[in-house]
Amino acid sequence: MTGRPTGPERGEGPPACAVPAHLRPRWRHLPLLAAVLAQAFAPPGARGRRLGYAFVPFWLVQIALSHGRGQVLAIGPATVTVIQPTTPGRRLAVSCAALPAAVLALCAAMLPVAAAGALVADLAAGPKWCAVGADAGLAVCAGLLVWQLAALARAALRATQLHRVLRPLQHRGGRWAEVGSLAGGRDAHATRTLARELLTWADEHRIGLAAVAATDRLARLYARAGFRPAHPGSAVLLRKPEAPGTPAGRLGAASGPAPRKQR
């Protein structure tokens, strides 16, 4: 969610609402949240394994950029991002402005790996192999990055579908926000609490929520919270705000314990 009031956008209906300040994590909490996201959204072959932690630098960059724009909410290790839609031109400008920072951060994350590769090569084969070890370390980092981006390519296609669904809803004067990157690690209670807080905020401000579930398990989780397909067979899920006085936060409340991991 964009955590700052933005004012009305041309053709986008009512202005956005600021999210609860107590749900915004501190910068020092971002490494923990990045580790949770890496385990939840790493490539399928790495999820739930130690290899998943190799993708923490990538997710640390992503969550830091989102946090800087006020889009990250968290309770303990549970985290979610919510983006209140803006005009395509504004979103593109923000993305272009953030790209240099993302590239620099990723390069900084690669340097220790390259240094470790050079050190191992030096100890194992002598100083003349340091450059080869450094190059090998960089190649591993680049391979992991490409693997992660390939795993997210499908999500990017679904995000395009989400934008197409939201555009007419916004033009009708509705207030909508995109929900994504919901993950809670093993703390089911924190995940349920964060979901209740999010749904309560959306209902109080009459904000509809839209999401694209990354997994079938997450789709079931959204369904328990009142999300429904935009149309039969659609990957885009919508939740209209509940009427005042209707209990919010059904996510995980009426269905027993939540899954150990939300992805």
Low-confidence stretches: 1-13, 251-263
Strand order of the largest sheet: 1-2-3-4-6-5
Structural class, from secondary structure content?
alpha+beta
The first-to-last residue Cα distance is 19 Å
Series of secondary-structure elements, N-terminal to C-terminal: HHEEHHEHEHEE
Shape call: elongated
* Rg over CA atoms: 20 Å
Report the sheet-strand fraction: 5-15%
Helix content: 40-55%
Detailed description of the structure:
This protein is α+β, with helices and mostly antiparallel strands and 263 residues long. It has one domain (21-239). It has 6 helices and 6 strands. Strands 1-2-3-4-6-5 form a 6-stranded mixed beta sheet. Helix 1 packs across helix 2 (56-68) and helix 2 runs antiparallel to helix 3. It is elongated, with a radius of gyration of 20 Å. It starts with 29 loop residues before the first helix and ends in a 24-residue tail after the last strand.
Helix-strand blueprint:
Elements lengths: L29 H12 L14 H13 L3 E4 L2 E6 L4 H38 L4 H42 L4 E8 L4 H17 L3 E5 L3 H9 L3 E2 L6 E4 L24
Parallel strand pairs: 3-4
Antiparallel strand pairs: 1-2, 2-3, 4-6, 5-6
Task: Summarize this structure as a short list of keywords or feature phrases.
single chain, 263 residues, alpha+beta, six-stranded mixed sheet, 6 helices, 6 strands, elongated, disordered C terminus, transmembrane helix, transmembrane, membrane, N-acetyltransferase domain-containing protein
Brief description of this entry?
By secondary structure, the protein is an alpha+beta fold. The protein is built from 6 helices and 6 strands; from the N terminus they run ααββααβαβαββ. It comes from Kitasatospora cinereorecta.
